[in-house]
Amino acid sequence: DIQMTQSPPSLSASVGDRVTITCRATQDIRNSLAWYQQKPGKAPRLLLFAASRLDDGVPSRFSGSGSGTDYTLTISSLQPEDFALYFCHQYSVVPYTFGQGTRLEIK
Amino acid sequence: QVQLVQSGAEVKKPGASVKIPCRASGYSFTNYALHWVRQAPGQRLEWVGWVSGANGNTRYSQKFQDRVTFTRDTSATTVYMELSSLRSEDTAIYYCARRALAGYFDYWGQGTLVTVSS
């Protein structure tokens, strides 16, 4: 199975900050990586797929990059509604696997 | 709009089974596969498997394949996940999610909490 290592596990930041979350796979996942946002008690929301493609309706302050085994999610200017749990997901190989999540908190 | 609606929380005793529905609407049910993913307390998301909306074909994670069964009812546009021989470690929120053509999950159900406790 492909293991996904996501870091950091938690992050404290302020409104307006730029933050970056990383995910590393144990093998090349060929850009088959998605990022999701989850708020308490809610279903996950797709933010990006194919490593860097923004889903419809997702603000442009979210961006993704990477290739091979290493990927990043960047939020360019944090807004109050962005404080949530974020996790990555590789869909290159079954079984699909997920990062352990990054909890983004208000400083 | 696309919606995946799951049932409410369940409490089960060890050794019992649970069957969770996921009702799909807002899209052509037979054009997409639906996956099941679970999240145990404090743990990362864990993929359970998928069921084809087109023909009912299934694929299960090796971890669950002896205990899980997916079925579908096309007339009700609903898929079901049944997990048997429940143990405390199965306590988790179970999500259904629609697989987009490229493989990622574009829509998720709201989740069903299953608590296994004696």
Dominant shape of chain A = globular
Unreliable runs of chain A, pLDDT <50, ≥5 residues? none
Helix/strand order of chain B, N-terminal first = EEEEEEEEEEE
Helix count of chain A equals 0
Instruction: Give the end-to-end Cα distance of chain B, rounded to a whole number of Å.
Output: 40 Å
Low-pLDDT runs of 5+ residues of chain B are none
What helical percentage do the residues of chain B reach?
under 10%
Helices and strands of chain A: which structural class?
mainly beta
Biggest sheet statistics of chain B: 7 strands, mixed
Distance between the first and last residues' Cα of chain A: 36 Å
Roughly what is the average pLDDT of chain B, rounded to an integer? 96
| SS elements, strand count of chain B | 11
Strand/helix succession of chain A: EEEEEEEEEEE
Rg over CA atoms of chain B: 13 Å
Taking the sheet with the most strands of chain A, its summary is: 7 strands, mixed
Shape of chain B: globular
Indicate the percent of residues in helices of chain A: under 10%
Topology overview:
The complex is a heterodimer of chains A (107) and B (118).
Chain A: E1 4-7, E2 10-13, E3 19-25, E4 33-38, E5 45-49, E6 53-54, E7 62-67, E8 70-75, E9 85-90, E10 97-98, E11 102-106
Parallel strand pairs in A: 2-11
Antiparallel strand pairs in A: 1-3, 3-8, 4-5, 4-9, 5-6, 7-8, 9-10, 9-11
Chain B: E1 3-6, E2 10-12, E3 18-25, E4 33-39, E5 46-52, E6 58-60, E7 68-73, E8 78-83, E9 92-99, E10 105-108, E11 112-116
Parallel strand pairs in B: 2-11
Antiparallel strand pairs in B: 1-3, 3-8, 4-5, 4-9, 5-6, 7-8, 9-10, 9-11
